[in-house]
Amino acid sequence: MSEDRPARAGQGPLAGCVRLAVERYFQDLNGQCPGTSLYETVIGEVEAPLIETVMRHVGHNQCQAAKILGINRNTLRKKLLCYGLVERPEPLPPTQGNELS
């Protein structure tokens, strides 16, 4: 497979890891039904470390990270704030009077 062509769905290098993790999850349930949406559970557990790792890889450059992740930079910023991966900026104090005169 060429490096510039994406793998078919479910055939990439991460697919095997996901399969093993989901199989282990079902084994741990001992035949019981999951109590919540499995999709939401997986996304919730995978998205934060994915973003954190990509951010570290690009030296915390949000534009580069967003490009690698294939999402808008503003979407990335919201996710960084949501997962606590960046600090929320402090609001500027209100100004009193005209500072320029």
Automatic annotation (TrEMBL):
Start and end residues of each DNA binding HTH domain: 44-80
Pfam families, per database record: HTH_8
MF terms in GO: sequence-specific DNA binding
Xref: PANTHER family: DNA-BINDING PROTEIN FIS
Protein name (database record): DNA binding HTH domain-containing protein
Organism per entry: Acidiferrobacter thiooxydans
Organismal lineage: Bacteria, Pseudomonadati, Pseudomonadota, Gammaproteobacteria, Acidiferrobacterales
